[in-house]
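Entry for the shared binder. Reason: the reviewer on the internal report wants the predicted structure included alongside the sequence.
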Amino acid sequence: SGDVLVFYTDGVIEARKRKVMFGTDRLSRVIADNAHRLAQDIAGEIYASVSDWGEGSRLDDIALLVLKAQ
């Protein structure tokens, strides 16, 4: 119960701020910080974090699927 599984495309971790990628460590922190929330809220927070990191511009598409065990 409470486990979270996140599937994502490379557009999530390869989002860039200047030349620095969002990366898996940053993604893991966003997931851990929001694991107590609903799956749709976790997905929203990941998307918002990636968008903020990339300063609104994306060079690649983003797809997310978040599953949370009850």
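Summary line for the report: The two ends are 5 Å apart (CA to CA).
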